[in-house]
Design a protein that fits this description.
The structure is a homodimer.
Chain A (H helix, E strand, L loop, with lengths): L13 H21 L6 H8 L3 H8 L2 H14 L10 H17 L1 H15 L2 H28 L8 H19 L5 H16 L12
Helix pairs in contact in A: 1-2, 1-4, 1-6, 2-3, 4-7, 5-7, 5-8, 5-9, 6-7, 7-8, 8-9
Chain B binds a DNA duplex through helix 1, helix 2 and helix 3.
Chain lengths: 208, 208
DNA sequence: TCACTAACGGGTCTGTGGTTCCGTTAGTGA
DNA sequence: TCACTAACGGAACCACAGACCCGTTAGTGA
């Protein structure tokens, strides 16, 4: 803590990078299969074919490992589609999220990541960063809608994109309701309607 | 497992009830302070001034205890307010949720409950039941809005109420954004707008 | 009021998640 | 290509959450 250098920072190339890669993939698998609660670092080490000492030294705790995994996931981005209308773009986004959360592996993984973030501020910060990046990637479609005059000037793009995802995550984590394509479409419609009506216009020009 | 009777079912009165009460309150406190991860049943027993054997016998696991706590919480209901307009009612609901989630203790508790539910199907079922009850309590205000002609016939009341909460929980768990009164008001507005536009009309008459 | 036994609880034991020690392997810079 | 040392990893070790045993307390029905 006090004496500085974290392991993995001085010689980040070669073996160190390979170990990190293997451990993160193993952690992903383990989280997906066991969930956040059932995760132990020795098991991750076994899956990664790496000494468990290494895992404990580099990441220390389960939440530390999850935080690093989130950082890694944040780096790989998926491209967005463009349909020419706000509703079309938001629907594409909603369906992408819906498909991701419905996929047995991905859905379980995201649940585990979110659960981990509830208990640790560093992990929570990593999760926020991850979603901030994803939201930023889709924000342009709202800006284009503003330019086209579909939604009023001053509309906060991030708020709109988040409004699309929110009901889907609510279903996944809280209500347990069906998470099908019509649900996704409804989420997109609701967000588009609200955006058109000027609900997401920021008066002071301040962004979240 | 195979031989039937669960402890606490044959003599549910007197001491058994007192123990349950004390343990649930202690679990609530512990969850609030330590979060879901940092919870151990011996600590709960200590707080409740109850033998730890009792806690292990009656509830067995952390998730089992959380599931019972959720059932207990579901039984105590908070009344809703009526303002005479859909937007007014939804705003009242949004602010209630916002205040609950912002409160340091309550917010932490709900985070912990949701995290626990991600890892265990019984707990998840209990969580779904809890929110289903809460949603039902507020559904009448949407039905009244239908009667007043504010929103189209066939609008699913539950969908509307859930649409109000969703962005608030999204902020709490995922984006980490500000969770203030304007945010709550915006959530209510967005839901009201979408409802008015007929986004939540169910075609087949089937409810979620 | 009394007998019956469900449910409680202190004490002890154990499996395992996590830590530490120290020798080995392999990046890195000259 | 060589010296230096960061980073890895097997093995022994430890602490503690959770299981178990068995004697005690107190609801319940007659």
């Amino acid at each position: 803590m006090t004496d500085g250098v974290e392991p993995g920072t001085v010689r980040p190339g070669g073996r160190t990078a390979r170990v990190r890669e293997a451990v993160l993939r193993a952690a992903e698998d383990a989280l997906t299969e066991q969930g956040f609660t059932g995760l132990d670092l020795a098991d991750v080490a076994r899956r990664a074919q790496v000494g468990k000492t290494t895992v404990y030294r580099r990441w220390g705790t389960v939440t530390g490992l999850v935080a690093d995994l989130l950082q890694d996931m944040a780096e790989q981005s998926a491209p967005r589609s463009e349909t020419g209308s706000l509703l079309g773009d938001l629907t594409a986004n909603a369906r992408l999220v819906q498909r991701t959360l419905t996929d047995p592996r991905q859905g379980a993984l995201f649940k585990a990541l979110i659960a981990a973030a509830t208990g640790d501020v560093k992990t929570a910060a990593a999760l926020h960063r991850f979603y901030d990046i994803r939201v930023r990637e889709w924000a342009p479609c709202v800006r284009q809608a503003v330019e086209r005059g579909e939604v009023p000037e001053g509309t906060d793009p991030h708020d709109v994109i988040r409004a699309v995802s929110a009901p889907l995550y609510y279903h996944l984590l809280i209500s347990g309701g069906r998470l099908d394509e019509p649900t996704a479409d409804r989420a997109a419609e609701a967000a588009a309607m609200a955006a058109r009506a000027g609900v997401f216009v920021r008066v002071g020009g301040k962004h979240a």
